[in-house]
Amino acid sequence: MQLSNKQLLKQPLNKRQRTLLVCIGLSIVVCVVVLTGILLDENRIATNLEVRNSPPSLDHLFGTDWLGRDMFSRTLMGLSLSIGVGLTGAIGSATISVILGLVAATMGKVADSIVTWLIDLFLSVPHLVSLILIAFAFGGGFKGIVLGIALTHWPSLARVIRSEVMQVRSLDFVQVSKKMGKSRWWITKEHMLPHIIPQMLVGVLLLFPHAILHEAAVTFLGLGLSPQEPAIGIILSESMRYLSVGMWWLAFFPGICLLFIVRMFDKIGDNLRMLIDPHHAHR
Amino acid sequence: MLLEAKNIGFKYGAGDWLFRHVDLQVEALEVVGITGPSGVGKTTFSRILADYELPNEGTVTMDGKPIMTSSYHPVQLVFQHPEKAVNPRWKLRRTLNEGWQPNDDFLDKLGIKQEWLNRWPNELSGGELQRFCVARALGPKTKFLIADEMTTMLDAVTQAQIWHAVLDIAKERNMGVLVISHDQHLINRVCTRVLEF
Fold first, then answer.
1. Nearest C-alpha of chain B: how many angstroms from A188?
2. Record's SMART domains (chain B) (predicted)?
3. Residue A177 belongs to what H/E stretch?
4. pTM listed for this prediction
């Protein structure tokens, strides 16, 4: 049956198209946020006591705080900082999990049991606790938080990659390659790594929102970034004191923005995982 | 060159013996057939010979010495399903050149067209892929080739072409060939002797 243009337009988009749309939207948002975060004039967040505590208006989209700082600019800067922390943390974490997953699956039984033990160890402690301890041990601040995130978020992805590599390892073409006299390292690099790249990408995408939320949580608790840096967690924790006097915009807009970005990444990661998984791809 | 399997026994896990006390000697230039009903362990036996599987008892030797396992294995196996034996993320040129670089004459003999080299595995048919697997396994250091149902899923013409080429090359290179098949005609046609499993 031939569909007319109108009917085609009315058809709901399929998952592939929706994912693509969300991807495009997200990259635009992230670019804008990061760019403005970098390029934004410091004067916008300078204290200006004449416009203290003003609710959202056209001049100050997200209102101003008790020192007259523009909340819109602060939110943007905070988001760009959060995205930076999240990306570095997620990529670091993914790197660790790929390395450990490959080691576990290719280096023999001893390596495998050590890595599995490590994974279980880290999974048995709540993320947040180990994250706080590690961040604290590295002296807090940007470095502490990024290291903390990178060192605590790898276990679940490492587990996925380990099982994936084990599956690839038993495939015929890998076995043939071994009989061609190729080294273990060569086979890992040429045959196995390309096979786990999709899993890795999805892993990074799904780690990212986790990383941002944990960064915000730790900062909110006062153990992460230092107070002069306008991270979302800092903004939220500072605004707590002013919520009771009715200054809702201090926490509302930054919180919504954070939630929005986190949700988008989560959605893309989920959709990509389903699209890559051949059991779901045809739906 | 003499490939010798002595007193081979194998079982999966802790189960019953799949087979025991199997002996086989293959010399260079010999073409030996292995036949038998399904599930008696023909494929497992061939995997043991090519060192894909370790036997529970018995030894596989070449000229009386155990085979070095870390470098190119002199016993190469061609599988029944070529689509599983090539990396789906590699172009075929790369797959073909994984072990050695065959020249154009060699490719011609096996009926591999130049334009296939730049394609992905899912763009070729099973018969076309199987030629690549055969070519890949016939490196200069291969002393014995095991064809485990190598041409079972191919049409008669392709079958004939591939076998013709393989036997030619085997004679040229002084290789031994082991043929595992259910096809009695094929066995009668190409083999110098037959092992009933």
1. 13
2. AAA (SM00382)
3. helix A172-179
4. 0.76
